[in-house]
Amino acid sequence: MGKPISTGQSHSVVQALSNNIDWSRVDSEAAQWVIEHAGEAEITAFINNRARIIVGEPTIIQINRAKPFDPATFIGEGWSFWRGPADGDGLTGEIEQDARSLALTEVDITKTSLKTCLSEGKKWIEGEEFLRRLRATENILLDAGVFQTFWENPYLHPQKWKEKTNGNLTRVFFTGSVLRDPNGSRCILYLYWLGGRLYWSYGWLGNEWRSDNPVAVLA
After folding, report:
1. Which of 203, 198, 209, 186 is nearest to 1 (CA)?
2. 108: which strand partners?
3. For the CA atoms of 44, 47, 49, 53, what is the dihedral angle to 10 degrees?
4. What would the pLDDT profile of 48-82 be if each residue is shown by its tens digit?
5. CA-CA distance, 77 to 94, in Å (whole number)?
6. Which residue, of 35, 71, 132, 201, is most buried by count of CB atoms within 10 Å of its CB?
7. Are 179 and 73 in contact (CB under 8 A)?
8. What are the residue ranges spanned by the domains of the chain?
9. Burial 34-60 (b: 16+ CB within 10 A, else e)
10. Element (H or E) spanning 191, and its range?
């Protein structure tokens, strides 16, 4: 779910940067600015973006379907995709995923949006009802494979995903895949930003969902 870097890792990162920068191509004035304004440089964001630089926001992202998402590998033993009806045990039947999302090999971020499906004047909605309302729309519900792509590539996130909603952290859910936890509960993966770092977690569909728990959909 994202954890702070260890002391040993921090030393290794510094060493890796030192060994792999082509110093002959570094501008002297730019280097001096970094020396004098290290606190202003977005060094932390650069490392959290896996040392990638991007100008502006990306618009098209590629989804690697050659490596399917595996709940047990990503989260831990006992996790799986939910199978069969919502009121079953989740162990047999068809995997509960949005087939339209699974067919995507790329996503146009300009066509994505965050949905809450809250009725006017309401501040929360029960998770299963939320899912039913989402499926009644024509929107594609983004699946766990898309979630993993965004998790592994923080620089792909649109700015609106990083902003707070009503003063609270915005948790972006990926309801195109319903997971089963080791206790037999129905869960959905989500991403959120805190202190300039990306984290992941999961929410139970049996819980209430608020306006700061939107779902990433593709129009």
Report:
1. 198
2. 60
3. 100
4. 666 766 556 667 888 989 989 999 999 999 999 99
5. 21
6. 71
7. no
8. 7-48, 60-218
9. eeeeeeeeeeeeeebbeeeeeeeeeee
10. strand 186-194
